[in-house]
Design goal:
Layout: H1 2-16, H2 18-27, H3 33-53, H4 68-92, H5 99-109, H6 111-124, H7 132-158, H8 162-207
Length: 208
């Protein structure tokens, strides 16, 4: 428990001193996986709260259409896809970050987004539609700060220059699209095969 709490506190070190924080994460084994998983759960909780508890004046999701599994997939799949794609690209570019480092850096980088998203949910319960600007500033600040932390983390753990990191970022996004396309194609082929097998089975049953 002490290590987990220390890992959670380390997110504030990364927030206040991102370059030193990510460097120590990669080369001095600071932080831990359990705390990163908890931060990932925090982001999932923020996504659920945004869908369920956002004030009616700001709600963008119909509560009747909310599904916890869909929300979970919308949070976890992009994170895992990012980690796999970034690891695949940076290995080819001789990046020094391991998959574990990429995953941990990504989880720590989500902390500002998660916190501001929860703050935004609370504000949406008390603000009016005319005060939406304040809500937008809070949530946008969290997203921007998380993206900056993510970029800083990629520069630091892979020991890239800014130009290399930008190129790696572009290639990572392209790899994510490619992996998603292959996954959809694979699922489509599997679905067609299952439909064909089901059709053959039904036809054999009818001929008996």
């Amino acid at each position: 428990m002490k290590n987990v709490l220390g890992g959670l506190r380390y997110s504030f070190t990364i927030l206040s001193h991102p370059i030193r924080g990510f460097y120590e994460l990669r080369f001095e084994n600071k932080g831990n996986l359990v705390s990163c998983l908890l931060l990932l759960l925090l982001m999932l909780a923020a996504a659920v709260c945004q869908s369920v508890y956002t004030g009616l004046s700001f709600a963008v999701v119909n509560i009747k259409e909310f599904h916890i599994l869909r929300t979970t997939a919308n949070v976890l799949i992009p994170v895992l896809l990012w980690c796999v794609a970034n690891w695949s690209i940076t290995v080819l570019m001789d990046g020094e970050g391991r998959f574990r480092d990429i995953f941990m850096a990504t989880c720590y980088a989500t902390m500002p987004y998660s916190v501001t998203a929860l703050i935004g949910v609370l504000l949406s319960r008390v603000l009016t539609a005319e005060e939406a600007t304040f809500l937008g500033i809070v949530t946008t600040a969290g997203v921007v700060l998380s993206l900056l932390l993510l970029f800083t983390g990629m520069v630091t753990i892979h020991q890239f220059s800014v130009r290399q990191a930008i190129f790696a970022l572009i290639m990572t996004v392209a790899a994510m699209v490619f992996i998603a396309f292959l996954a959809v194609l694979f699922l489509s082929v599997v679905d067609d095969m299952l439909s064909y097998i089901r059709g053959v089975y039904i036809e054999l049953q009818l001929r008996r």
